[in-house]
Design goal:
single chain; 94 residues; mainly beta; Jelly Rolls; four-stranded antiparallel β-sheet; three-stranded antiparallel β-sheet; 7 strands; 4% helix
Length: 94
Amino acid sequence: MKSLPKRLNFQKRTPDFNHETVPAGILGQHKTASDTWGKIVVTEGSLTYRILEPNVEEHIISTENYGVIAPQLTHQVEMHESAKFHIEFYKDAV
């Protein structure tokens, strides 16, 4: 799993999501803007994070680790039972 570049500044974070509150768009294939990085932070349980390009990668994200979303790469999340998580967004320091 990649790590977030050190040059990034925190911008915002989503609310905490669970099976009932996760937006459908997060579960389907999607990508971030060209200047936006994401950090998937699991606070309970685990989920599967799939990076779909340029090569398919699959990672299990739990409270022990986090997922890194690189700009403009198609990805998706699959929630496991009892998972809770949020996403933090970062941009290059100006």
